[in-house]
């Protein structure tokens, strides 16, 4: 027998975007229910770098103070081209706003910091969506059917369910496309200490085929780190195989974000469900945190829920389309373009133009964004 539940706002997905959105709505006085298909908080993804635009969002969400003491700010990045041996130092200049800087944080720590702000029953785990229906009328509601037979009715449905979002598919958004690049991610564990400096290190080289975590670690140790400094070879040797993953890098093309609807009635999307992007400028999680604050602010200030969602979609459209485009360009340049005639052109552009003129302007524009504050509940 079907079990019916009614909620003001239902959020699909308890990742960064979902939890941050739930916290934002709590601050402005809108109750929500978060549906998560996993049996507990997802800890996939070792760490992420949060730029000042993300820290402003975390301050609006009232959780920045939990994380800032744990993670020191990073002031520089060193980008090394292994084919030529050249290294470019990219400074992270401080802004005039007194920002907290750029900090790399454990993804699990960020999720826990957000989840602690929510009531214990705010997240419903092991909840997999089977289908979505929307009833029309003077007060339209969206019905979510779960695989356990439960039926949940919501005035507002927000999809924060990742790249392969069920909610985005229901909205009619085109699927994310393969960028032609992939990423190996992992976490190195040093039980005692390490001699690494507090900076971002990036090495540009060829890609490798998909494989198991154990094979990836072995392949990186044998071949891909031959020209790496000793301290980085040590980091690879200390990689926890359980955190190592290989995945293709997907994105939603910018024109889909500009031309297709990311909101229909009282249904919308946020985070990777709206704007999956490649990671070269470190803005996936940052943009998700921005989404949460803007969404909470728009819903709090609008006379009607649907109007608030319309305002949110309109405000985010150009911002996230620009970030997706900038991330893809950065990755294309860093990887030397595609195979063939473009490779020497891309390498010349990277060495002579990109890191000197283009990249600093992209970073400054993205870092300088302020998503605003959240009005407290009345």
Describe the protein's topology:
Layout: E1 3-12, H1 16-28, E2 32-35, E3 47-50, H2 52-60, H3 64-67, E4 76-81, E5 87-91, E6 103-106, H4 107-115, E7 123-124, E8 129-135, E9 141-146, E10 150-159, H5 166-171, E11 177-185, E12 200-204, H6 213-224, H7 230-237, E13 245-251, H8 254-259, E14 263-264, E15 267-269, H9 284-301, H10 305-334, H11 342-367
Helix pairs in contact: 1-4, 1-9, 2-9, 9-10, 10-11
GO molecular function, one term: monooxygenase activity
Domain FAD-binding: 7-325
Pfam families: FAD_binding_3
Structural class, from helix and strand content? Answer: alpha/beta
Kindly provide the radius of gyration, computed on alpha-carbon positions and rounded to a whole number of angstroms. Answer: 21 Å
Provide the β-strand percentage band.
Answer: 15-25%
Report the total helices. 11
Distance between the termini: 39 Å
Tell me the overall shape.
globular
GO molecular function: FAD binding; monooxygenase activity
Domain FAD-binding: 7-325
Keywords: Monooxygenase, Oxidoreductase
Family: Belongs to the 3-hydroxybenzoate 6-hydroxylase family.
């Amino acid at each position: 027998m079907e079990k019916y539940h009614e909620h003001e706002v239902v959020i699909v997905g308890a990742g960064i975007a979902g939890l941050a959105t739930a916290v934002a709505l709590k601050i402005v006085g809108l109750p929500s229910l978060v549906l998560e298909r996993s049996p507990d908080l997802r800890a996939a993804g070792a760490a992420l770098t949060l730029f000042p635009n993300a820290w402003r969002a975390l301050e609006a969400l009232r959780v920045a103070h939990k994380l800032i003491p744990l993670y020191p700010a990073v002031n520089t990045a060193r980008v090394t081209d292994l084919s030529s041996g050249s290294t470019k130092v990219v400074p992270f200049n401080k802004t005039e706003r007194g920002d907290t800087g750029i900090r790399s944080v454990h993804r699990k720590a960020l999720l826990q910091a957000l989840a602690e702000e929510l009531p214990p029953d705010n997240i419903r785990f092991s909840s997999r969506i089977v289908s979505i229906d929307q009833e029309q009328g003077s007060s339209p509601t969206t019905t979510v059917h779960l695989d356990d037979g439960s039926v949940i009715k919501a005035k507002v449905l927000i999809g924060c369910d990742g790249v392969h979002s069920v909610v985005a598919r229901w909205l009619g958004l085109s699927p994310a496309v393969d960028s032609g690049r992939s990423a190996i991610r992992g976490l190195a564990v040093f039980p005692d200490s390490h001699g690494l400096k507090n900076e971002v290190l990036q090495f540009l080289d060829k890609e490798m085929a998909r494989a198991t975590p154990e094979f990836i670690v072995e392949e990186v140790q044998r071949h891909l780190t031959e020209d790496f400094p000793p301290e980085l070879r040590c980091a690879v040797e200390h990689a926890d195989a359980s955190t190592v993953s290989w995945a293709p890098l997907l994105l939603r093309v910018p024109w889909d974000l500009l031309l297709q609807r990311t909101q229909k009635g009282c249904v919308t999307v946020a985070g990777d469900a709206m704007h999956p992007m490649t990671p070269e400028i470190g803005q996936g999680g940052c943009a998700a945190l921005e989404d949460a604050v803007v969404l909470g602010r728009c819903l709090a200030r609008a006379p009607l829920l649907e109007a608030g969602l319309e305002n949110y979609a309109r405000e985010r459209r150009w911002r996230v389309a620009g970030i997706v485009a900038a991330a893809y360009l950065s990755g294309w340049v860093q990887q030397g373009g595609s195979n063939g005639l473009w490779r020497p052109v891309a390498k010349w552009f990277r060495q002579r133009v990109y890191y000197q003129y283009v990249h600093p302007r992209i970073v400054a524009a993205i870092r300088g964004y302020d998503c605003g504050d959240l009005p407290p509940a009345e």
